[in-house]
């Protein structure tokens, strides 16, 4: 069931873990696309949905990695699709491939993303533009194509992977990455309100620091270690999560038909 939107003006933006009125979602037998499934959180999420009985489409640019995962899972309920989320035709091809193979699309996890640690005064505009393309335009294109597919079968769920950095200012991270994650959350809130009557829910998941190659894959020049005053505070933070833990939380969010799951210790789920 879609989340409740109380009035024409709409629902307030949410924080913490928020439930919809009704109805859990059973991933068993559902068709799920996970973008950025060749690594980290996306790979773990694809494996978790597969273990829960879903048909899983693993999408990313690195075909070799995707095919190795699919070979392990078996071809019956897993499909590798090469798609760059910044390319509209490839995103459309990803949705078409899911429909051709499994006949429907129920859930799309917009997880593909890159990092960028650069201060606002010196961030390279070309890096910012690339960040925008991958972290915001990518989810938009996938949502648009995914919504068209979900409408054919009466509904579905969009899961957008944001970041706890959108809710807390950590100066040495710079503002570019958190700004676009916050934009993704706002886009998600509006999409949820718009799509509720069509039985399409939008879940936002905000991972905390997670052990993946995300830092090594970040855009821009390697920014070096954080300044000493932040390094000390970072050491005091709770330990990073595993990608598998985040994947289980994504699955819980889907099962509960939630609208938001925040894994950040600073902004824990209610
Ligand atoms: N790790 C953290 O601490 C952390 C914390 C908060 C939020 N997050 C968010 O979690 C998500 C996953 O990150 P991660 O930690 O799992 O990082 P990761 O291990 O670097 O994985 C990123 C994935 O995105 C894919 N990707 C990158 N650019 C792409 C493009 N243009 N088109 C399609 N796929 C693309 C990569 O695959 P290919 O290179 O094969 O395309 C890879 O599968 C991101 O949205 C990130 O912002 C991460």
Fold blueprint:
Layout lengths: L17 E2 L11 E5 L4 H12 L3 E6 L2 H11 L4 E5 L5 H15 L4 E4 L14 H28 L3 E6 L14 H20 L4 E7 L3 E2 L16 H8 L5 E2 H13 L2 E5 L8
Parallel strand pairs: 2-3, 2-5, 3-4, 5-6, 6-7, 7-10, 8-9
Antiparallel strand pairs: 1-10
Helix pairs in contact: 1-7, 3-4, 4-5
The structure holds NADP nicotinamide-adenine-dinucleotide phosphate.
Please, how many helices? Answer: 7
**Mean pLDDT, nearest integer?**
90
Largest sheet: 8 strands, mixed
- Reading side by side through the largest sheet, how are the strands ordered? 1-10-7-6-5-2-3-4
Shape: globular
CATH class: Alpha Beta
CATH level 3 topology: Rossmann fold
The span between the termini is 21 Å
Give the CATH architecture: 3-Layer(aba) Sandwich
What is the CATH homology-level superfamily? NAD(P)-binding Rossmann-like Domain
Estimated helix fraction: 25-40%
User: What's the SSE pattern?
Assistant: EEHEHEHEHEHEEHEHE
When the domains are counted, the total is 1
- The radius of gyration over CA amounts to 18 Å
